[in-house]
């Protein structure tokens, strides 16, 4: 079996590439010229250089593969156009090329986001059939990508995956939080009691694979989660415990974070980079819940999460300490 992964050099994509190789797949990775390939260098993969924003660079990538895992996306940008040309139009380019040059593809797996669905209520997790209400440009363009994939359902068998907040080795935002807590400073978003849904990266990748291979998944959408919900206080407490810094830790409350995040945003504007935390996102985390039900994946795909929060955090920290992160 042959699989194409877009965004293969990223956090989730590189884990997926290693998993598929272990399953006996021949893996082709679509990457842009100049991409950081450090997580793929040790893997037996084929590189195809192209860009989903440029249709003419995609023919070789999609031709002859059995499965397409589309992960490439812009997560942080300064304007709508940047989000839209990759998350929406890039998805359109890729699936159009599949329809033109590889209509026999067994499955097109689109990795969307919980941001496409929007925030949940405080008690009831969102389900796949609930109305989508994205509240930022990233979520809106990922939802547009979903709509493109569904519009090709007559030609290309597809499935949509909405991962929640994913953590594990190589994840930069989680590492940033770990680094702060290691200095005995605990960031609290609001009062720390707002809740979110998580998934360890290895579990997510396995869920994506099950969705790609199941006949029941064609035309469906799934949340892949670890089946639990966590407050930010629970998460940061667990990180502190794993780091061995539970005692004498200084809480950094929401209003203390505002000037720090403001400086981060100023720096990113000057350096033309993107910050993992912005004032709008900080406010978003303080006010909202992010709860999503993974019951459909359990019921229809036979998915079972294997990693507890405690073990997932500990494994991640061990990896960070052994490998570093930049």
Distance between the termini: 34 Å
**pLDDT averaged over residues:** 88
* Largest sheet data: 7 strands, parallel
The appropriate CATH architecture of the domain at 2-164 and 199-227 and 291-306 is 3-Layer(aba) Sandwich
CATH-level-4 superfamily name of the domain at 2-164 and 199-227 and 291-306: NAD(P)-binding Rossmann-like Domain
Radius of gyration over alpha carbons? 19 Å
Helix content: 40-55%
CA-based shape: globular
CATH topology of the domain at 2-164 and 199-227 and 291-306: the name is: Rossmann fold
Question: How are helices and strands ordered from N to C?
Answer: EHEEHEHEHEEHEEHEEHEHHHH
- What's the total number of strands? 12
Number of helices: 11
Class from secondary-structure proportions: alpha/beta
Name the poorly predicted regions: 263-268
Please describe the structure with a list of short key phrases separated by commas or semicolons.
alpha/beta; three-stranded mixed sheet; Rossmann fold; 326 residues; globular; seven-stranded parallel sheet
Report on the architecture of this protein.
This protein has 326 residues and is an alpha/beta fold. The protein has a domain at 2-164 and 199-227 and 291-306: NAD(P)-binding Rossmann-like Domain (Rossmann fold). It has helices at residues 11-22, 59-62, 80-101, 137-151, 172-182, 201-213, 232-243, 254-271, 279-287, 295-301, 309-323, and strands at residues 2-6, 26-31, 45-49, 67-70, 107-111, 158-162, 165-167, 185-187, 195-200, 221-223, 229-231, 250-252. The strands form three sheets. It has a seven-stranded parallel β-sheet with strand order 3-2-1-4-5-6-10, sandwiched between helices. A three-stranded mixed β-sheet has the order 7-9-11. Helix 4 (137-151) links the parallel strand 5 and strand 6 (158-162). Helix 1 (11-22) crosses helix 6 and helix 5 packs across helix 7. It is globular, with a radius of gyration of 19 Å. The two termini are 34 Å apart. The relative contact order is 0.13. Mean pLDDT is 88; it is low at 263-268.
């Amino acid at each position: 079996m042959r699989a194409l992964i877009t965004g293969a050099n990223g956090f989730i994509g590189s884990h997926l590439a290693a998993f598929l190789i272990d399953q006996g797949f021949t893996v082709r990775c679509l990457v842009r010229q100049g991409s950081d390939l450090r997580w793929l260098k040790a893997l037996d993969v084929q590189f195809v250089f192209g860009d989903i924003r440029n249709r003419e660079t995609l023919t070789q990538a999609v031709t002859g593969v059995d499965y397409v895992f589309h992960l490439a996306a812009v997560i942080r940008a300064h304007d709508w156009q940047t989000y839209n040309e990759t998350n929406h139009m890039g998805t359109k380019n890729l699936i159009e090329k599949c329809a033109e040059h590889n209509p026999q593809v067994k499955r097109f797996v689109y990795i969307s986001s919980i941001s496409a669905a929007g925030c949940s209520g405080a008690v009831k997790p969102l389900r796949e059939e609930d109305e989508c209400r994205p509240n930022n440009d990233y979520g809106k363009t990922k939802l547009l990508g979903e709509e493109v994939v569904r519009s090709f359902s007559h030609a290309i068998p597809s499935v949509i995956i909405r991962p929640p907040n994913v953590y594990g080795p190589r994840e930069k935002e989680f590492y940033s939080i770990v680094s702060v807590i290691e200095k005995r400073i605990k960031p609290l978003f609001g009062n720390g009691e707002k809740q979110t849904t998580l998934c360890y990266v290895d579990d997510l990748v396995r869920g994506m694979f099950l969705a790609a291979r199941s006949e029941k998944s064609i035309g469906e959408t799934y949340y892949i989660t670890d089946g639990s919900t966590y407050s930010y206080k629970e998460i940061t407490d667990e990180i502190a415990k794993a780091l061995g810094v539970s005692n004498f830790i200084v809480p950094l409350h929401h209003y203390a974070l505002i000037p720090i995040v403001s400086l981060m945003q100023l720096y990113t504007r000057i350096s033309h980079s993107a910050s993992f935390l912005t004032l709008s996102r900080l406010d978003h985390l303080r006010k909202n819940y992010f709860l999503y039900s993974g019951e459909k994946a359990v019921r229809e795909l036979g998915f079972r999460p294997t990693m507890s929060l405690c073990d997932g955090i500990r494994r991640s920290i061990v990896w960070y300490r052994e490998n570093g992160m930049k």
